[in-house]
Amino acid sequence: xxxxxxxxxxxxxxxxxxxxxxxxxxxxxxxxxxxxxxxxxxxxxxxxxxxxxxxxxxxxxxxxxxxxxxxxxxxxxxxxxxxxxxxxxxxxxxxxxxxxxxxxxxxxxxxxxxxxxxxxxxxxxxxxxxxxxxxxxxxxxxxxxxxxxxxxxxxxxxxxxxxxxxxxxxxxxxxxxxxxxxxxxxxxxxxxxxxxxxxxxxxxxxxxxxxxxxxxxxxxxxxxxxxxxxxxxxxxxxxxxxxxxxxxxxxxxxxxxxxxxxxxxxxxxxxxxxxxxxxxxxxxxxxxxxxxxxxxxxxxxxxxxxxxxxxxxxxxxxxxxxxxxxxxxxxxxxxxxxxxxxxxxxxxxxxxxxxxxxxxxxxxxxxxxxxxxxxxxxxxxxxxxxxxxxxxxxxxxxxxxxxxxxxxxxxxxxx
Length: 415
Ligand SMILES: Nc1nc2c(c(=O)[nH]1)N[C@H]1C(S)=C(S)[C@@H](COP(=O)(O)OP(=O)(O)OC[C@H]3O[C@@H](n4cnc5c(N)ncnc54)[C@H](O)[C@@H]3O)O[C@H]1N2
Ligand code: MOO
Prior knowledge:
The chain is of the alpha/beta class. The chain folds into four domains: 4-18 and 176-321, MoaB/Mog-like domain (Molybdenum Cofactor Biosythetic Enzyme, Chain A); 22-43 and 142-174, Molybdopterin biosynthesis moea protein, domain 2 (Alpha-Beta Complex); 48-136, Molybdopterin biosynthesis moeA protein, domain 3 (Beta Complex), CATH 2.170.190.11; 330-399, Beta-clip. It has seven helices and 26 strands. The strands form seven sheets. It has a six-stranded mixed sheet with strand order 7-4-6-5-9-8, with no helix packed on it. Strands 16-13-17-21-20-18 form a six-stranded mixed sheet, sandwiched between helices. A five-stranded mixed beta barrel has the order 22-24-23-25-26. α3 (205-215) runs parallel beside α6 (303-321) and α4 (230-242) crosses α5. It is elongated. The protein starts with a helix and ends in a 16-residue tail after the last strand. It holds the Pfam family MoCF_biosynth. Catalyzes the insertion of molybdate into adenylated molybdopterin with the concomitant release of AMP. Residues 180-320 form the MoaB/Mog domain.
């Protein structure tokens, strides 16, 4: 039976690279940059005040108690002004009048006189003041021409802030991968608003995969629930192919039972099987294949096998399709000793928290049977284990969701 690393390598060799498209920055959340982003401007774009106060020319140092006539007032949004070397009232974010090089906060001054219109006319400094105080300089955050984000970066709200500040209305991103989901099983009730008939269960794999793919920035073209007939399954896969799916993900009917028709149906369709059965738990009966331009994941129906398939097989393939490097896993100290079955890599639902010793601590949840969904809803991380681990051992951890993993510190490939 193939091991996890070899299975992943086989998949990554067949992961197609997706094309680049232009995208409005407003729609770019969750998408992956196809090219480096180069700043076309300085940020800040002009020298401006960091405080409400008075801009002055320091001439070395201005003494505490020195008095200054106030020539004018500069607010955020006002254009360039010549200062004539005199003090100016200034607001936070306002452009520094030309010739002035320092700012005193208003509360560190005494107002001595006002103009007729009430604006300040003369002030006294409460403290000595040197040059360059409370001034934010042009280009001090981002210099024009600098690479501010690398190809392969997934756009999060913090990136949107920078792109907007740089006036970038559009970015070049990798197009969203198209995904078709097929849930098999005549026991499945896909309509959550309907009551269950005898022997039925609510289908949870479909809604889970739709949610997970949405959070991965993929486009789910279809999510269909089919019965246990090979013919319906084949027709659904063919529809997914015609719709241009890059990934076809099925759940169920891939193991040893009499109704487990998926492997035969895929070979009937001409799919080239990369592997069937991987030395992991849960999710051992998983099958992956190449069918035309699409990669097919035939995941076992058991809910935790689906979660493992999504997290540790499909998510890495999506990264490769978008030109991202492999994800880095984290490490934590194990609080709950484990005796995993020999020869299998185990993916265990866990909670990971910082301990009083400043290290991350992992607690593997007690109920790990693959049909149990509740521990998955309580977990915030995965623990990966192939060998016995005593309490206090360092173990490999991964964030519960792929794209928000706090442990992933990899930079995109090419960075
Ligand atoms: N004789 C053997 N039986 C089984 C083996 C084995 O090696 N020998 N492996 C077991 C393992 S491990 C797994 S995992 C399952 C995988 O079976 P299938 O992929 O054929 O999946 P199904 O039988 O269709 O379903 C398994 C389980 O999951 C429930 N299910 C299915 N789809 C959904 C859905 N959309 N939402 C929620 N739950 C779903 C289904 O009702 C079953 O309970 O095989 C073992 N058997
Ligand atoms: O691989 Mo199965 O999910 O262990 O039950």
